[in-house]
Design goal:
The chain is built from two helices and 40 strands. It has 461 residues and is mainly β. Strands 4-1-8-6 form a four-stranded mixed β-sheet, with no helix packed on it. It has five domains: 83 residues, Sandwich (Immunoglobulin-like), CATH 2.60.40.10; 79 residues, Immunoglobulin-like; 79 residues, Immunoglobulins (Immunoglobulin-like), CATH 2.60.40; 79 residues, Immunoglobulins (Immunoglobulin-like, Sandwich); 98 residues, Immunoglobulin-like (Sandwich).
């Protein structure tokens, strides 16, 4: 009895052991993933496997492929071939103790197309009909810049032909071959067959000799004849502006816009009138009258100078607002400026009163080896020169507030300091002194040191 029980135990133990571990044994594989590519292309499609293992293969002539020797795991299958797309783009495959088949894909050929483009220049750009014939037939129209494009074209022979009523084109057409690349710069030049004119008459105070300016689609200039007639010829369709001008005259209207659309444009007339001008005048009185600079600004600008009696005048002015400002170094004016408006009348008695500006001085002395005859140069708001007297004294007078530089100079001498910066601010400046020393030749460093010591500590011996 005990023996039978032992045998049963061994039997059931072996049974359950095989049941528990049989899947693990089978999971070691190997397994396969297989499928097929159908559609526009079958063979030579690259099939890439990634994931638990990485393998690459290609489809055979029937589109079939197989990845073998695989273990349990997660994989991604991706087809690829230049010029084709695939549905789906890739497929995720899970192997769990069995082969995976029918992992299929559909191929689609990618359609590659090209274009023909160019531009129409010359007498017309926009609205030219461009006709394409040959491997395809298409019609388009040029844009405002004269550009056109035929797109979505396959390889082949084509002819491009421009057309628009009233125009010829050079060349009349172009033959274009597409062979794996788009074709650009297929350009044409348009010439208007019939040309037109713009004409009219200037009447009024002046007729002859008026300058007539044409701008817009074309630019030209002509002059009215003795009867005031003018004409612009050889014009193409487009938008233009005609503007008359002559010194001393105004015109109504000041200009006219004209559009040529397959017809001459006449009676583009103007009326002239004398341009009435006015003046601004006045006088400068006070401590100075003559030689004052008078500056005009505003609707016109100009400069004049008062005469010996202080009178000035600005002429040839039209209605507008103006400012007059007097100016002369060393003087101030009351008022400093005057702003007035001309309105169909001259402006007189625009007067100013002058007075001396406050002036100041800078003075000092040169001491040391040299005193007399040193040239002192003043630079800044006012430039002057002075020469020291026998005692080394110098001065600059008649100076206004501002920044100045004084530099002494004399052959064979050096000065300490080399120059001085001085500011005048409503007070005279004194004590702008310098020390002079004769230049000494130095042969070695001891000479340099001795000369420097003499210059700094004993300059007056």
């Amino acid at each position: 009895m005990k023996l039978k029980s032992f045998i049963l135990i061994l039997f059931f133990s072996s049974f359950f052991t095989n049941a528990l571990f049989s899947d693990a044994a089978f999971a070691e594989g190997p397994y396969i993933i297989s499928g097929r590519v159908i559609g526009d292309v079958l063979g030579n499609v690259t099939m890439t496997l990634t994931g638990t293992a990485s393998i690459t293969t290609t489809t055979n002539a029937l589109g079939s492929y197989t990845f073998s020797g695989l273990s349990d795991g997660t994989y991604t299958v991706t087809p690829s071939l230049d010029g084709y797309t695939f549905t789906p783009e890739s497929t995720i495959v899970h192997i769990t103790g069995a082969d995976e088949s029918n992992i299929n894909f559909t191929s689609h050929a990618v359609t590659v197309t090209f274009s023909i483009s160019g531009k129409v220049t010359g007498d017309v750009q926009e609205g030219v009909t461009m006709t394409l014939t040959g491997a395809a037939s298409i019609t388009t129209t040029t844009n405002a810049l004269g550009s056109y494009t035929f797109s979505g074209l396959s390889n082949g022979e084509y002819t491009v032909t421009p057309s628009k009523t009233g125009y010829t084109f050079e060349p009349t057409s172009r033959t274009v071959t597409i062979s794996g690349t788009s074709q650009g710069s297929k350009d044409f030049t348009a010439t208007q067959i019939v040309k037109y004119s713009i004409s009219g008459t200037v009447t009024g105070e002046v007729q002859a000799g008026v300058s007539m300016t044409l701008s817009g689609t074309a630019s030209k200039v002509t002059t009215t004849d003795t009867s005031g007639n003018y004409s612009f010829t050889e014009l193409i369709n487009g938008s233009y502006t005609v503007t008359p001008s002559m010194p001393g005259y105004i015109f109504a209207p000041t200009s006219q816009s004209v559009k040529i659309d397959n017809a001459n444009q006449t009676v583009i007339d103007f009326t002239s009138a004398l341009l009435t001008t006015y003046s601004i005048s006045g006088r400068v009185s006070g401590v100075v009258q003559a030689g004052v600079t008078m500056i005009l600004s505003g609707d016109a600008s100009g400069t004049t100078v008062t005469d010996s009696a202080g009178n000035y005048s600005f002429t040839g002015l039209s209605d507008g607002t103006y400012t007059v400002t007097p100016s002369l170094v060393g003087y101030t004016f009351s008022p400093s400026s005057i702003t007035r408006a001309i309105s169909d009348a001259n402006l007189t008695d625009v007067n100013f009163t002058s007075s001396e500006a406050g002036t100041y001085s800078i003075s000092g002395s040169v001491t040391g080896d040299i005193q007399a005859g040193v040239v002192m140069t003043l630079e800044g708001d006012i430039a002057k020169t002075a020469i020291t007297d026998s005692s080394g004294y110098y001065s600059f007078t008649g100076l206004t507030n501002g920044m100045y530089t004084i530099t002494p100079a004399k052959d064979g001498c050096i000065f300490n300091p080399v120059y001085r910066f001085i500011e005048i601010s409503y007070v005279n400046v004194v004590g702008a002194d310098f020390i002079a020393a004769l230049e000494v030749s130095c042969t070695d460093w001891s000479d340099v040191i001795d000369t420097y010591t003499l210059y700094v500590t004993q300059p007056c011996q």
